[in-house]
Design brief:
Length: about 170
C-alpha cells in the first residue's frame, strides 16, 4: 500500500494534459493546474485532488453528476460557487457540498479574486457516471472499466446533446 499520509504542501500542481486543455473561446474562461492525491495515498473509493485556478477563471464548466458526489474545501483565495440557480461567495476554510443530482445540484467554482484560488476536491468514484452541463445543453457518459496489460485505463467516454439522440430502435 502507498504511504497513507501526504502533506498538502508536497502536492505538485501540473497543467492539464493537452488532451484535456480548454480550446477555442473556452481558453478565455477556463484554466487550472491540478495535483492528484488519491493514488499517492492509496485511496480506492474516493478521488482527491488539489486544484489551483487563476484569477477570473474556472476549472470546469457548470455541471452536475448523476452518480458521484463532490466536496470542496477552500484553502486559499476567494471566489464564488454557483449551485443550481444560486451563487455564493467562498473564502478559505469554506466546505462546499455538491451531492449527486440534476440541474438543481449543478455547480461551478469561479475565481473572482485577484490571487490564485486553491481548493481540495474530494469525490466518490462511482462508474458509470452521467455528467450534465446545463449552460451548454451537453451531457457526458463516463465509465472506467479496468487497466489493461500495458497499464492503460480502459473505459467509455461519450459527450453528446440530448436533442441529437437516436430512437431506441434506430438501425435495428
Amino acid at each position: 500500500m502507498s504511504h497513507p499520509i501526504l502533506n498538502i504542501a508536497d502536492v505538485e500542481l501540473y497543467p492539464r494534459p493537452d488532451s484535456f486543455a480548454a480550446t477555442g473561446a473556452a481558453r478565455d474562461r477556463f484554466d487550472a493546474r491540478m495535483g492528484f492525491i488519491a493514488s499517492r495515498v492509496g485511496a480506492k473509493q474516493l478521488g482527491y485532488n488539489l486544484t489551483a485556478v487563476p484569477p477570473g477563471k474556472r476549472a470546469f464548466p457548470f455541471h452536475s453528476h448523476r452518480a458521484n458526489e463532490e466536496m470542496f474545501y477552500v484553502i486559499e483565495g476567494e471566489g464564488e460557487v454557483r449551485i443550481g440557480n444560486a451563487v455564493y461567495p467562498i473564502h478559505p476554510g469554506d466546505i462546499i457540498a455538491c451531492p449527486a443530482g440534476g440541474k438543481e445540484t449543478a455547480h461551478q467554482i469561479i475565481n473572482t479574486g485577484t490571487a490564485e484560488l486553491k481548493y481540495l476536491a474530494v469525490s466518490t468514484q462511482l462508474s458509470p457516471d452521467i455528467t450534465e452541463y446545463p449552460d451548454s445543453g451537453k451531457f457526458g457518459v463516463l465509465a472506467d472499466f479496468y487497466v489493461d496489460a500495458n497499464g492503460e485505463p480502459q473505459g467509455f467516454h461519450f459527450m453528446g446533446r440530448e436533442d441529437l439522440g437516436l430512437d431506441y430502435w434506430e438501425g435495428e
